[in-house]
TrEMBL record:
Name of this chain's protein: DUF4365 domain-containing protein
The species this protein was found in: Chloroherpeton thalassium (strain ATCC 35110 / GB-78)
Domain of life according to the entry: Bacteria
Taxonomic lineage of the native organism: Bacteria, Pseudomonadati, Chlorobiota, Chlorobiia, Chlorobiales
């Protein structure tokens, strides 16, 4: 095995967060690029020599709103470029979008199954090719896909008045329950 990959910032933030929040989990790095960035196991959940595991695809974004004069009610905003077929064929159980806010040295995670993420993009008319995704997190704990929204709609997000169930990612914001369920925590 010749190491050609190193852990990136998002993978590090996810791994260190999981180790701190869920004591006893083991976090593994793959030796090759397989579409899985981290493997998380719970040795305490093992029965008859089988260990419960969950595979993660981690996507990191710096805060793209820090210097844009966006409302102070918006905590962070990330930008990702995804390939439709990479989401569709993802071997990972969960995708973790990491939004790191440099001004406060804190972060948020969007934890979502790839098929759910893809379904939301389909409902937004993104059915092939490259997907540009802008995700905002508000100070009130809401999370939104904001790509292609008008300024008035972005203002509604900042003011807590926006409604759109397809764009609303709040149920996935910092919600580690899908991981906990898979590894029997």
């Amino acid at each position: 095995m010749k190491p050609i990959f190193t852990i990136h910032a998002g993978e590090y933030l996810v791994a260190s967060h999981l180790e701190e929040k869920f004591k006893g989990l083991q976090i593994w790095l793959p030796s090759s690029d397989t579409g899985i960035d981290l493997l998380v196991t719970n040795p305490k959940a093992s029965s008859q020599n089988s260990v419960r595991a969950v595979s993660l695809q981690v996507k990191f974004s710096k805060d793209f709103l820090g210097n844009k004069g966006v409302s102070s009610k918006i905590k962070a905003g990330g930008w990702w470029t995804f390939k439709y077929d990479k989401i569709e064929k993802s071997p990972a159980d969960l995708w973790v979008l990491v939004l790191y806010r440099f001004s406060h040295r804190d972060y948020d995670f969007v934890i979502i199954e790839p098929h759910e993420l893809l379904e939301r993009y389909k409902n937004l008319g993104k059915t092939s090719g490259t997907i540009q995704s802008y995700v905002w997190v508000t100070e009130t704990g809401k999370c939104w896909e904001t790509r292609d929204l008008r300024n008035a709609e972005k203002d509604q997000i900042a003011n807590g008045a926006f409604k759109d169930s397809i764009r609303d990612l709040s149920q996935f914001l910092n919600n580690w329950q899908p991981l906990q369920k898979r590894v029997e925590l």
